[in-house]
Amino acid sequence: MQCMHLSDSQVPLPIMTSSLKMALGLSDIPRVAFVGSGGKTTALFCLAREYQLSVIVTATSRLEIFQTQYADQHFHCDDPLGWGGNLPQDISGVTLFSGPKNDHSVDGLGHDALQQVLLLADRKDVPLLIEADGSRRHPAKAPAQHEPPIPDFVDSVVVVTGLSALGKPCTTEWVHRPEIYANLSGLKLGDLISVKAMEDVLCHPYGGLKNIPVSARRIALLNQADTPDLCFQACELAVRLLSTYQSVIVSALNRKDSALDIPIINAIYK
Questions:
Q1: E strand or H helix that includes residue 20
Q2: Is residue 131 part of a domain?
Q3: Are residues 33 and 67 in the same domain?
Q4: CB 94 within 8 A of CB 131
Q5: How many CB atoms are located within 10 Å of the residue 189 CB?
Q6: For residue 70, what are the domain limits?
Q7: Cys-Cys with 143: which of 5, 63, 147, 169 at CB 3.0–4.6 Å?
Q8: Are residues 161 and 64 in the same domain?
Q9: The pTM is what?
Q10: Domain tally for the chain?
Q11: pLDDT in tens, 56-96
Q12: Measured between alpha carbons, how far is residue 257 from residues 153, 234, 252 in Å?
């Protein structure tokens, strides 16, 4: 089974290989936030590598230490205001700015430090990619009251969900904050997660849509379409999401097209 690319008129077209940047429909100098679960960090750094020049990456939530190694250079500050407006100017490749380092993670940036990073990105005229959510590496999640910390200046928000949660129980093994996920989806704890349940969470104002700025483009990234069955279910889900999201991407970001060395994009819906 091969998923299809749908045009604006919803006429099926043969799928074509696409970079993640092209699939997401981003400009050359975007301000993008990634939220959700099941591949945020992978998507963020895959996208960063597709930009040929310098890219600034940061986070408003915690990053695990091993994730910071995806950057070419990493600047962190024990005092979020300690940069004093004088951030390192010699940036190249993928440059990560974060808060203090802890035992197993680095903190995200607060408002003032983030504004300094935004000013640097504006001065350098480079993309700014922001991880704005945490999921403890679960494929599915629902946001807590304080989540997600999406900056108000972003022009696009990519809401990621992991398709490997489909058919799995709504428990802590598969879902970050399963009680909230169950409440938003109408499931009971332990119920199997269906396409409808995933749709309900992604389209809920306190779920996938939470804290997205009114002016930002809403993009759903259905990741982990690693089997024909998951790809089929993802395409079904994508059609349902089009009334809420400007575009929906079905992907398998942990796999790559061996010939082109880019992540596999299974389908694009607009």
A1: helix 20-24
A2: no
A3: no
A4: no
A5: 14
A6: 52-126
A7: 147
A8: no
A9: 0.90
A10: 2
A11: 999 999 899 999 999 999 988 765 555 655 667 678 899 99
A12: 34, 19, 10
